[in-house]
Amino acid sequence: MSFCAGIQAGPPIEVFALTQAFTTDTFDKKVNLGVGAYRTEESKPWVLPVVRKIEQLMAADQSLNKEYLPVLGLAAFSQAATKMLLGDDSPALADGRAVGIQTLSGTGALRVAGEFLARTCGRTTIYSSEPTWENHRLVMLNAGFQEYKSYRYWDPATRSLDLKGMLEDLRAAPERSVIILHACAHNPTGVDPTPDQWKQIAEVIREKNLFPLFDSAYQGFASGDLDKDAFAVRSFVKDGFELVCCQSFAKNFGLYNERVGNLTVVTSSKEVLANALSQITLLIRGMYSNPPQHGARVVATALNDPTLYQEWRVCIKTMADRIISMRAGLKERLIKLGTPGNWDHITNQIGMFSYTGLNVEQVEYLRNEYHIYMLKSGRINMCGLTNANLDYVAGAINDAVNK
Ligand code: PMP
Questions:
Q1: What tens digit of pLDDT does each residue of 152-163 get?
Q2: HSE (CB half, 13 Å, CA atoms) of 275?
């Protein structure tokens, strides 16, 4: 009898199952709108030219070695990453109240933040938006939270933010609950609060003594503008909040499989930060001991060298602009076809993902009849669109909606 006999099969992870089904589909016009990564106009993954260049420099640099990094990672990386998030002139940085910790991409940052808040700081309940990135729940329950709950976020009727519902749910949350907030380009809806709405959210968080945990997976990638995409986090810091922010460099550097992330911790005083860091050091030591160097060094090099930094900014602008142009292209075609419904949300939403508003039957119809793959929720990745397949996809959506 096997040592693991009697174990039930776990449920499939939808996004990976979808990619698998797409790969085995032999239809020539198939389209994958389900992937969680950037694709070029040729439907190919993109290694950023600046990343290739830095990797070549690194390969030639005989002074680099493969020694262990410290538990908290490469300081040149985490300092630059925290500065990129908070801004050069951040008062928290100037006061020594903010610090960065290198993590295993955004997921790793969430896990470390979760463990610290639940196990070290004794927080028991965490909230994320409904809907949210599907992994929040698993990461946070595994990190030690006793309860994972949701606050309302998406209003299907208006295909925009349900601010009233969100604020009501936050007001009803038990004190000291941790609230996950998407810093920009909300996944999966692509709907972000406006600056004024952020202000209202911040007021409730302060009033009810909740704790903000920002998830920043798309800084720069969302709008092409690093400052704009950091607006929410910076305004909370400016308002004097303590917070943590989990940064991913998967999308904005195209470094998905290198697992480059940073956990920024902002406290109210320099004194408490040292103890927090020593506890986080023990958490990481007990989880994976220390992070890998390669990707972090690539990012550190780009962020710390003025010329390479400019080259990288051109790259993120290229990605953001392509996504924005696909949004416009899809909306324009749906309107031209007279597809029933209002499609303004396609261009109002931001980032790689769009919540189309298509229902499960329509999603299935598109897959069965047109070999167009997307998540059951109707979320599509704009990068799956190209000038070559826009007409095909728009026509298919028009057919599905009119059916
Ligand atoms: N948070 C959100 C909202 C995301 O969309 C993602 C990537 N899909 C992540 C975190 C983490 O990604 P990674 O671990 O690859 O950095």
A1: 999 999 999 999
A2: 6
Find, among 238, 240, 192, 239, the residue nearest to 215 by Cα. 192
Give the C-alpha separation, 155 to 338, whole Å.
24
Pocket probe for ligand 1: among 189, 248, 256, 383, the residue whose CB has the most ligand atoms within 8 Å is 248
- Per-residue model confidence as pLDDT tens digits over 261-287: 999 999 999 999 999 999 999 999 999
198 given a catalytic annotation: no
The continuous run of DSSP H or E covering 167 comes out as helix 163-172
Give burial (CB, 10 Å; 0-12/13-18/19+) of 173.
buried
Q: Per the confidence metrics, is the pTM higher than 0.90?
A: yes
Q: In the numeric block, which tokens belong to residue 112?
A: 């470390």
Q: How far apart are CA 384 and CA 381, in angstroms?
A: 6
Is 248 close to ligand 1, i.e. is its CB under 6 Å away?
A: yes
Query: Cα torsion at 19, 25, 29, 34 (round to 10°)?
Result: -10
Which residues make beta-bridge pairs with 379? 355
ipTM over 0.90: yes
Are 99 and 277 in contact by the 8 Å Cβ rule? The answer is yes
Element (H, E) at 58: helix 49-60
